[in-house]
C-alpha cells in the first residue's frame, strides 16, 4: 500500500535521495564505518564528503559517536539497519530530527524487519531498500525509496519524474544475466569461469562497479519488466518475510546451542528479517571456514571486511572505526533467505557444526 519510488538499483535510490535534497560538494554525510562501498559510491557521486563513524558490538551505529560527529557541515546522516536490526536508538533518531538534519534509513539488509511492531524503514525522513540478488527479496536488480516525512515529498517526486527509465531491452538483458548467473552457480560447469569472464569482459553483462562514476543523464528509474515483476511478487512479501525469519530463527538457535558468537540475537520486541546471519569467529580460522564451506557447497560471506571502504577514503574523514575494524576482521555470514530448501537448511546446520568444531579445536590448541 506504500507508494514506493522504484529505481534501477539501491545505490541509484540513495544517490537520488541525496541529490533531490541538495547534497553537494560543501556538505558532509555521516555513514557507518561498517558498510558496503555501494554507499560510498552513492555519496561520493554527489561530491559530498563522507564522515565514517564506529559501530557497537551488535553492528548498530554507535549513537554517541554519531552525535559527536555532527558539525556545521553535516547535511545528512545515513543510518544503517544491518542484518535486520534498527541502526540507531529511537532517542538518537529524535535528537537528529530535532537538529533538522536530513535522516536517511538504509534498509538494504533489513527489508521486512520490525521493532515494537513498527516496520524498519519508518524511522528516517526517507528510507531506501535494495532488491538486488544478494538481498532478502530480489528481482535481480532494483532499489526502492519510501518517503516518511512529507517535507521531502515534493523534492523527491520532482527529481524522480525527471529521470529516465531503463529500457525494456536493457531490463531483459538483466534478467538473462541473473538467470545465467544462477545457472552457472548451481551447475558449476568446467567452462563456466571462462564464459563468466567473456560475458563481463565484453560488457554483455552489466557490472556494479563502484569505481566508474556514471554520467549525469543515466537512466536510473526501474525498467518496465522489473516493475511488472515487482508488482507480481509484492503481494507475497509478507510470506517471504515470515519464511526468512523462520530460517533465521532456526539457524540462530543451532548456532547458539553450539556456543557460536552471534552479534545479533532477536529480542522479544523485534521481528528480524535478514538475508544472512552474521557470526563472529576466530580471525585465524576464516580462510579454513571458507574452504570448508566451499567443499559442501556453501558460500561464506565476508561482507564489509574492508573497514571503512577504501575507495575515495583519502577524500573522506574517519571520525571513529576501532570497533568496526575489530569486528570486520572476525565476522562471517551465512544465508538464511526465504528460498532455502529444507536440504539446504540441513547442510547449513552441518556447516555450523563444522565451524563450532574448528573453534573448539583452536581453543584446545592454545
Describe the structure.
The chain is built from twelve helices and 13 strands. The chain is of the alpha/beta class and 366 residues long. Helix 1 crosses helix 5 (153-162).
Order of SSEs: EHEHEHEHEEEEEHHHHHEEHEHEH
Major sheet: order of its strands? 1-9-8-5-4-2-3-12
Biggest sheet, open or closed, and with what strands and sense? 8 strands, mixed
Mean pLDDT: 91
pLDDT < 50 stretches: none
Rough outline: globular
List the helices and strands and how they pair.
Elements: E1 5-7, H1 10-20, E2 28-32, H2 37-44, E3 49-53, H3 63-69, E4 74-80, H4 90-98, E5 102-106, E6 114-115, E7 118-119, E8 126-130, E9 143-147, H5 153-162, H6 168-187, H7 192-201, H8 224-233, H9 237-257, E10 270-271, E11 276-280, H10 286-295, E12 317-318, H11 322-328, E13 331-335, H12 342-365
Parallel strand pairs: 2-3, 2-4, 3-12, 4-5, 5-8
Antiparallel strand pairs: 1-9, 6-7, 6-10, 8-9, 11-13
Helix pairs in contact: 1-2, 1-5, 9-12
Short key terms for the protein model shown above:
366 residues; alpha/beta; 8-stranded mixed sheet; 3-stranded antiparallel sheet; 12 helices; 13 strands; globular
Summarize the structure.
By secondary structure, the chain is of the alpha/beta class. The protein has helices at residues 10-20, 37-44, 63-69, 90-98, 153-162, 168-187, 192-201, 224-233, 237-257, 286-295, 322-328, 342-365; strands at residues 5-7, 28-32, 49-53, 74-80, 102-106, 114-115, 118-119, 126-130, 143-147, 270-271, 276-280, 317-318, 331-335.
Amino acid at each position: 500500500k506504500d507508494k514506493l519510488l522504484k529505481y534501477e538499483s539501491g545505490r541509484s535510490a540513495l544517490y537520488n535521495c541525496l541529490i533531490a535534497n541538495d547534497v553537494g560538494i560543501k556538505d558532509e554525510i555521516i555513514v557507518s564505518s561498517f558498510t558496503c562501498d555501494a554507499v560510498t559510491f552513492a555519496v561520493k557521486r554527489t561530491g559530498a564528503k563522507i564522515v565514517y563513524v564506529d559501530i557497537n558490538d551488535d553492528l548498530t551505529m554507535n549513537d554517541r559517536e554519531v552525535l559527536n560527529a555532527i558539525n556545521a557541515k553535516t547535511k545528512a546522516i545515513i543510518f544503517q539497519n544491518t542484518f535486520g536490526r534498527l541502526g540507531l536508538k529511537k532517542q538518537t533518531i529524535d535528537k537528529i530530527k530535532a537538529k533538522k538534519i536530513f535522516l536517511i534509513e538504509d534498509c538494504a539488509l533489513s527489508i521486512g524487519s520490525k521493532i515494537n511492531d513498527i516496520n524498519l524503514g519508518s524511522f528516517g525522513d526517507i528510507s531506501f531498500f535494495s532488491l538486488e540478488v544478494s538481498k532478502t527479496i530480489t528481482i535481480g536488480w532494483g532499489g526502492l525509496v519510501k518517503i516518511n516525512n512529507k517535507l521531502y515529498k515534493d523534492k523527491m517526486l520532482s527529481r524522480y519524474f525527471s529521470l529516465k527509465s531503463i529500457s525494456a531491452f536493457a531490463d531483459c538483458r538483466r534478467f538473462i544475466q541473473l538467470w545465467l548467473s544462477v545457472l552457472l552457480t548451481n551447475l558449476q560447469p568446467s567452462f563456466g569461469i571462462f564464459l563468466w569472464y567473456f560475458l563481463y569482459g565484453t560488457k554483455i553483462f552489466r557490472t556494479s562497479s563502484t569505481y566508474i562514476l556514471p554520467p549525469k543523464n543515466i537512466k536510473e528509474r526501474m525498467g518496465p519488466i522489473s516493475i511488472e515483476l515487482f508488482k507480481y511478487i509484492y503481494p507475497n512479501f509478507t510470506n517471504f518475510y515470515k519464511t526468512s525469519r523462520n530460517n533465521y530463527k532456526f539457524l540462530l538457535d543451532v548456532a547458539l546451542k553450539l556456543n557460536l558468537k552471534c552479534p545479533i540475537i532477536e529480542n522479544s520486541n523485534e521481528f528480524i528479517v535478514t538475508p544472512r546471519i552474521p557470526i563472529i569467529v576466530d580471525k585465524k580460522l576464516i580462510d579454513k571456514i571458507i574452504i570448508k564451506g566451499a567443499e559442501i557447497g556453501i558460500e561464506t560471506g565476508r561482507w564489509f571486511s574492508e573497514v571503512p571502504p577504501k575507495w575515495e577514503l583519502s577524500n573522506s574523514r574517519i571520525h571513529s572505526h576501532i570497533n568496526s575494524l575489530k569486528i570486520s576482521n572476525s565476522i562471517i555470514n551465512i544465508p538464511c533467505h526465504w528460498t532455502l530448501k529444507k536440504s539446504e537448511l540441513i547442510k547449513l546446520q552441518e556447516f555450523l557444526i563444522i565451524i563450532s568444531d574448528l573453534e573448539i579445536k583452536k581453543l584446545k590448541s592454545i
